[in-house]
């Protein structure tokens, strides 16, 4: 190191500064810059993860909403099913309808059960009955109101009212449709709903 001592102070200072600069350059290229690149990569990865996490959290919230809505619809469906009688209960329901008509003072001229019509959804079936009754406007209106108040669903449609030329009152023609649960698989001992509908008490003359 004698050569170093022989250098002037200015050259030694310049040499020291050069060494420091060289070390700084080496540290920057070998340590600092790679770490900065690594940090940049990690920051990009973290940003991507945070973005994906935000998306997943939104999906989880949406899933929770869908599950809650599914539970609500399930309860609503069960409530609706409670209003659908089983096949064996349809005859009793239709008898309630005829009893209400008789109590309202109506005379039944026609009671013709039709074939069961399964719904496209498969969740219920329609059991239509063609009905003709005679009576006053008040009696017909009271009958429709009482049918609407039944705990089981019975829909009155295709209503046609005209003067009753034979009795002096009014003739009302309409379709009374009961909604029943889907039929059970064959072989389980359940009777045919149409047969049961025909078995219901038919007031007045037979069609």
Give the structure's gist in a few sentences:
By secondary structure, the protein is of the alpha+beta class. It has helices spanning 2-6, 9-82, 87-103, 137-148, 193-199; strands at 107-113, 117-118, 125-135, 154-163, 170-180.
Describe this protein's structure:
The protein contains five helices and five strands, in the order αααβββαββα. It is of the alpha+beta class. It has two domains: 2-81; 87-199, Alpha-Beta Plaits. Strands 1, 2, 3, 4 and 5 form a five-stranded antiparallel beta sheet that branches. Helix 3 (87-103) packs antiparallel against helix 4 and helix 3 packs parallel to helix 5. The protein is rod-shaped.
Work out the strand percent. 15-25%
SS class: alpha+beta
Shape: rod-shaped
Task: Using the 3D structure, state the CATH architecture of the largest domain.
Answer: 2-Layer Sandwich
**Topology as H/E string?**
HHHEEEHEEH
The H-level CATH homologous superfamily of the largest domain, spelled out, is Ribosomal protein S6/Translation elongation factor EF1B
**Overall mean confidence score, pLDDT:** 78
- Tell me the total number of β-strands: 5
CATH C-level name of the largest domain: Alpha Beta
- The name CATH uses for the topology of the largest domain is Alpha-Beta Plaits
How much helical structure, as a percent, in the residues?
Answer: 55-70%
Our measurement of the CA-to-CA distance between the termini, rounded to an integer number of angstroms, reads 131 Å
Provide the domain count.
2
């Amino acid at each position: 190191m004698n050569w170093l001592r022989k250098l002037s102070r200015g050259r030694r200072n310049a040499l020291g500064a050069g060494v420091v600069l060289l070390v700084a350059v080496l540290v920057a290229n070998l340590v600092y810059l790679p770490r900065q690149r690594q940090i940049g990569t990690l920051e990009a990865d973290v940003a991507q993860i945070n973005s994906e996490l935000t998306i997943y959290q939104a999906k989880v919230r949406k899933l929770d909403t869908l599950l809650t809505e599914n539970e609500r619809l399930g309860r609503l469906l069960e409530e609706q099913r409670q209003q659908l009688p089983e096949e064996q209960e349809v005859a009793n329901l239709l008898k309630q309808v005829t009893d209400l008509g008789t109590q309202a003072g109506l005379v039944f001229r026609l009671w013709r059960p039709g074939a069961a019509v399964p719904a496209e959804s498969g969740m219920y079936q329609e059991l239509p009955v063609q009905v003709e009754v005679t009576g006053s406007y008040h009696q017909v209106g009271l009958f429709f109101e009482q049918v609407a108040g039944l705990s089981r669903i019975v829909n009155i449609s295709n209503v046609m009212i005209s003067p009753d030329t034979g009795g002096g009152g009014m003739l009302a023609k309409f379709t009374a449709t009961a909604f029943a649960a889907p039929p059970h698989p064959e072989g389980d001992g359940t009777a045919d709903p149409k047969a049961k509908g025909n078995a219901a008490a038919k007031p007045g003359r037979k069609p």
